[in-house]
Amino acid sequence: MTRRYPDPAAPGERVALFPGSFNPFTIGHLDILERGLAIFDRVIIVVGCNRNKPSADAENALEAIRRLTAGIPRADAMIWDGLTADAAKSPVSAARCTLGGRLRVRTQHGRCQRHDISRPRDGHPPRTPLAGAAEFEHGT
User: Residue range 110-136: average pLDDT?
Assistant: First the structure.
């Protein structure tokens, strides 16, 4: 049996959440994690789980992430089955920010555009967009 949640945030600790489905957790995700750790004291990878995703998938992703990040002492991971904003407010994380990569969307003409999503919404912590290294990006 593995630990489901990270240790609680220490007072004054600058914590960021890195939410996603991470199916699979890629070298690009690892690159964004390392960039986040250059800014924050700790980064908690939050594997999203919802009723449309079997919990076994989230558990498998969590185990894989913990194996891949075992040598990174300021990184941790957990499963969360609610809103990211609620995870950020929890005493476990007390996160000041969420990390995110770039999103690619297709226009109606089929062209790919990159969007950095950084505008905070009510009740949500601000999002810090971090681009991974160009060699880890892939087109869709």
Answer: 55
- Supply the DSSP symbol for 27: H
- The whole-model pTM stands at 0.73
Query: What integer pLDDT is reported at residue 122 of this predicted model?
Result: 56
Neighbours of 39 (CB within 10 A): 13
Place of tokens 């800014």: 39
Count other C-beta atoms under 10 Å from residue 85's C-beta. 16
Residue 131 · residue 101 · CB < 8 Å? yes
d(CA 21, CA 77): 12
What's the pLDDT score for residue 130? Answer: 66
Torsion of CA 14, 76, 52, 81, to 10 degrees: -50
| Whole-number Å distance between alpha carbons of 122 and 115 | 20
Stated length of the chain: 140
Q: pLDDT value at position 47?
A: 92
